[in-house]
Amino acid sequence: MRPSIRSALERSAELTRSNQFVEAVAIAEAAFNRATDDELAEIRQWLNDHTNDFIGKV
């Protein structure tokens, strides 16, 4: 996936951990909308692999 999309997902996770859900969803949604079909599968896998980034667990 493109670095800009990965960065958006990482920022979304950071905002989620800070309880800024509206901003987090807006950023993630924009990343999803910019993604190609091939990237969507990568995003899905990234989200599965980084669930703890969103909930703040180590």
Features of the shown structure:
0% strand, 58 residues, mainly alpha
Describe this structure in words.
The protein is mainly alpha-helical. It contains 4 helices and no strands. The chain has helices at 3-17, 21-34, 37-49, 51-55. α1 (3-17) packs antiparallel against α2. The longest helix is centred in the N-terminal third of the chain and has 15 residues, at 3-17.
User: Segments where pLDDT lies below 50 for 5+ residues?
Assistant: none
Note the overall shape.
Answer: globular
Helix and strand run: HHHH
Question: In oligomeric terms, what are we looking at?
Answer: single chain
> Mean pLDDT, rounded to whole units?
93
How many strand segments?
Answer: 0
- How much beta, percentage-wise? under 5%
What Rg is obtained from the alpha carbons, in whole angstroms? Answer: 11 Å
Number of helices: 4
Distance N terminus to C terminus? 24 Å
Q: What kind of sheet is the major sheet? A: none
Offer a quick outline of the entry.
The termini are far apart. The chain is an all-alpha fold.
List the SSEs and their pairings.
Blueprint (H helix, E strand, L loop, with lengths): L2 H15 L3 H14 L2 H13 L1 H5 L3
Helix pairs in contact: 1-2
